């Protein structure tokens, strides 16, 4: 059974790696549709626990979720296969675009494709949220906590602060109810930053991106700020414009936004630079998830940590909803995009059509719109 499961993981996450546009919230929604709704590999509650837990460790959350789902399905080999297959298509696409950028000084226009894909992504995420919220808001308190986290996120509060606060509050209330005089919480601390001093080369590129992957929390915008300080101002490897181009390519291509590292690695040290930068920034995620597999079950079994995980889950789903609301403003910009979003939502509700087909349809409509206008 194990080889068959590994093959299933490879096929699924290769396809997701090609079609998962829209950032982490969209990636998580598509994974939920595939592994919970269609295949039943994990339960809704287990999926929510993994979403919350991966939000507590550094690195790209949706990639780490893919890695952990691979572990759940086929243990060690599944962990590696799911992660690599989800990352590889995006890395290849971004690497190709980096070659085009260096060779011709520009990248192919993707505005038309994205115009049609973005409203489909909003519909996919909305459907996932509708199904995930009941698993998160299991009590009135958790529902209120999720609502408060959503409001706080929209007000500009840092994502990690909200996740930790949600877990701490839920655990604290649980302990206060059961043992009023005793309150004790333990939270894993992120790895301390590694420091590297060496001449620029493949080893240095790998080391720099390994360190970034080991300590970076947050969205693609946080990645932009981190790379700006590290690679533009501190090391002078690339210019600010090159960095903006790299982040733009990482955001408009499918798969993890962290494949921005592939683009920057190519600019810095050519093809092999792209390879070692990609390995460097994603390697910590595999190691973190391997450690996480040892503790998620224990956390759920322990009453206090189970309460903390419930709080983290509530905050994580609130963050997903907050990001989706912000993305909706960029995606639904006219009557046509509104119609695309509505049609995609209706198809998701009334049929079992795979979301990859909806993505392809949105891309086709967007491309046709770009040619006709």
Provide structural commentary.
The protein is mainly alpha-helical. It has one domain. 79% of the residues lie in helices and 0% in strands. The protein contains 15 helices and no strands. It has helices spanning 2-19, 24-38, 44-54, 61-104, 111-136, 140-154, 159-178, 202-215, 220-234, 240-252, 260-292, 296-301, 303-331, 335-350, 355-372. The longest helix is centred in the N-terminal third of the chain and has 44 residues, at 61-104. The chain is globular, with a radius of gyration of 20 Å. The protein starts with a helix and ends with a helix. The relative contact order is 0.18. Mean pLDDT is 80; it is low at 180-199.
Class computed from helices, strands and strand pairing: mainly alpha
Low-confidence stretches: 180-199
**What is the CA-atom radius of gyration, in angstroms?**
20 Å
Whole-number count of domains: 1
Question: What is the number of helical segments per DSSP (H or I, 4+ residues)?
Answer: 15
Number of extended strands = 0
Q: Share of helix among residues?
A: over 70%
Overall form? globular
Q: What summary fits the major beta sheet?
A: none
Strand content: under 5%
Give the averaged pLDDT, no decimals: 80
Write the element-wise H/E pattern from the N-terminal end onward.
HHHHHHHHHHHHHHH
- What is the rounded distance between the termini? 52 Å
């Amino acid at each position: 059974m194990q080889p068959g499961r590994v093959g299933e993981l490879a096929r699924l996450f290769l396809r997701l790696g090609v079609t998962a546009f829209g950032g982490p919230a969209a990636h998580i929604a598509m994974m939920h549709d595939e592994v919970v709704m269609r295949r039943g590999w994990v339960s809704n509650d287990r999926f929510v626990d993994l979403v919350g837990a991966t939000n507590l460790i550094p690195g790209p959350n949706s990639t780490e979720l893919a890695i952990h789902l691979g572990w759940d399905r086929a243990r060690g080999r599944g962990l590696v296969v799911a992660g690599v297959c989800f990352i590889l298509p995006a890395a290849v696409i971004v690497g190709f675009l980096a070659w085009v950028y260096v060779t011709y000084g520009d990248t192919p226009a993707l505005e038309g494709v994205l115009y049609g894909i973005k409203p489909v992504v909003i519909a996919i995420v909305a459907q996932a949220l509708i199904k995930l919220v009941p698993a998160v808001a299991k009590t009135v308190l958790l529902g209120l906590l999720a609502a408060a986290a959503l409001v706080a996120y929209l007000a500009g509060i840092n994502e990690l602060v909200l996740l930790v606060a949600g877990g701490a509050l839920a655990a604290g209330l649980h302990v206060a109810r059961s043992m009023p005089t005793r309150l004790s919480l333990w939270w894993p601390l992120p790895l301390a930053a590694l420091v590297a001093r060496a001449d620029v080369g493949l080893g240095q590129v790998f080391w720099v991106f390994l360190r970034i992957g080991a300590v970076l929390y947050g969205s693609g915008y946080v990645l932009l700020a981190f790379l700006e300080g590290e690679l533009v101002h501190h090391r002078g490897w690339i210019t600010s414009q090159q960095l903006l181009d790299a982040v733009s390519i990482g955001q408009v291509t499918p798969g993890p936004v962290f494949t921005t590292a592939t683009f920057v690695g190519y600019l810095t040290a050519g093809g092999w630079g792209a390879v070692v930068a990609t390995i460097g920034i994603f390697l910590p995620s595999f190691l973190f998830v391997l450690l996480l597999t040892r503790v998620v079950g224990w956390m759920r079994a322990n009453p206090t940590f189970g309460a903390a995980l419930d709080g983290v889950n509530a905050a994580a789903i609130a963050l997903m909803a907050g990001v989706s609301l912000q993305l909706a403003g960029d995606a639904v910009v006219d009557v046509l995009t509104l119609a695309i979003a509505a049609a995609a939502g209706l198809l998701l509700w009334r049929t079992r059509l795979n979301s990859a087909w909806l993505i392809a349809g949105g891309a086709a409509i967007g491309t046709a719109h770009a040619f006709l206008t």
